[in-house]
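Help: why these numbers?

___
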Amino acid sequence: MTVDTAPSALWAEVAILTGAGELRRLSGAFARFIGSLGSEAPPLMLACVLLSELEGRGHSCLMLGELALDPCALMGWNEEQWRQLAGAAAPLPKNARAWAARLSQCDQVWHVGELDFDQPLVLDGERLYLRRYWRDETLVARTVRARAEHMRELDPARVHHWLDILFASDRRADAPDWQKLACAVALRGSVAIITGGPGTGKTYTVARLLALLFAMAPDAAHQRVALAAPTGKAAARLKQSIDKALTELADKVGSELPLRELTNRMGAARTLHSLLGARPDTRSFAHHKGNPLDIDVLIVDEASMVHLEMMASLLDALPAGAILVLLGDKDQLASVEAGAVLGDLCRDAQAGGYSAQTVAYALAASGEMIPDAFRGDAGALAQQTVMLRRSRRFGGPIGQLALAVNDGEAARAEEVLRAGGELRWIEHAQQHHVVQLASEGYGPYLALLARDTAGDGHEAWVRSVLLSFESFRILCAVREGDWGVTGLNEAIEQRFNGAGLIRKRGEWYVGRPVMITRNDYGTGVFNGDIGLTLADPARAGSLRVYFLEGDAVRSVLATRLRQVETAYAMTVHKSQGSEFRHTVLVLPKER
């Protein structure tokens, strides 16, 4: 055991960085807690501060190599900030190996491979983890690898037959049909990842994959399919898109494959929390390894938003023989909680890396030849990962801007923005400019709101109001300040109230858009759901919050909703997958 005491200067520097907004209060408190369990060695205390801070930014561990090589880049700090903090904890190890050696001497750290005393921190090679994130990451890596290595026996000729029926012939002659390839690849394993940007046809592809699974199943009449997503909104959109695609396919395929039966048996898409049976006020679920899900196929959309702990719970609850298909855009923002799982799993999807065995199978099963540029031997998971590379609706200036941003081409991005067209760039804007844009963008919604319809037409009116609101949104990069969600929502409310467009007399008022910020199983609303506050037609003076779920409308008394926030403006992160017709993206001068 090594017993050290952290100098007061270290805690003073932590307090300075916390006051400057560079550290969360939790990060310092976490380090002090770890110190109370044994050693307070300055390098350990510093590592704990950084580990906690990185966990809050969505990372699952502290990479000691990055810490030793470029701590400023790792934390996003300037050199003076790091120099002061590091100086207070000096002397610090010089490289990753020295860091690992120093931390392994502390009794709060379990070095993987040594005797385990259930310490709170885990050192795995040159990575420092909180134990639960190490456990979750290990489970995900081990389970996904095992599933990727498990291949099913298939008749490629039969697969080819059905794929030719399910996919139209309007393909490009100069490139393979990656959607068709994705279906062939997903069919042969117990896990598959289908990734691609907006408009590349992920749900179009998975609808055909479901039809293919249905056609190839030995007992299709009893195949159990579940659809899920991180949020209720994403789940409803997934179900709606797949139902539409399968209905269109049913007309094309005819009686040879009774797809309407499949559509009717799938049931509603669910949030992951609902699927797993979340237990209120705990981190546990009803379904787990000892009580697995009763399903044969699970499709998870918006997988980039699934954090590490949820992915571990999902894999733990999945039956060994079930097929898991993850859909998502690897370039989307990851979950705000620790672990960018999808991004890590398909980090090299752009390169392909398909083995000779995969190339041969793909050709036999789909008739599609994987180009030489995408061949290699990138490992088992790469063979079960397909990136959709052709956008069918995401072109023009917006598509060009997205490509420039993803490629880090600032000059090209600025050129696209200045070209005008469907993009408008407003430099040096003031808050009132954004509020004016909100007045214009929400104009149709506010006009509909004023035409409150009672009686038989009420539900149709509610649906039209919800759809109108969903056509426009203010998106923010930050939460606080004049340019953040909080400041802009307040300013927009003041403008609308002053103009008589709403009548705000308290927290709740007719027309208030709200976002649910915490899962509420009692009312059936979930984090990320957006609803509109409207008058209750059955009770004078009462307000209800209405939510659109596919084509259906449901409502909850406003007084029953506790964890909500006003949602004229929302963060970019919360907006992912929303597909608004018009948006205003607000970027502050500084982060």
The chain has four domains: 8-125, 140-388, 395-421, 426-586. The CA atoms of residues 165 and 253 lie 7 Å apart. The chain has 25 helices and 18 strands. The radius of gyration is 26 Å.
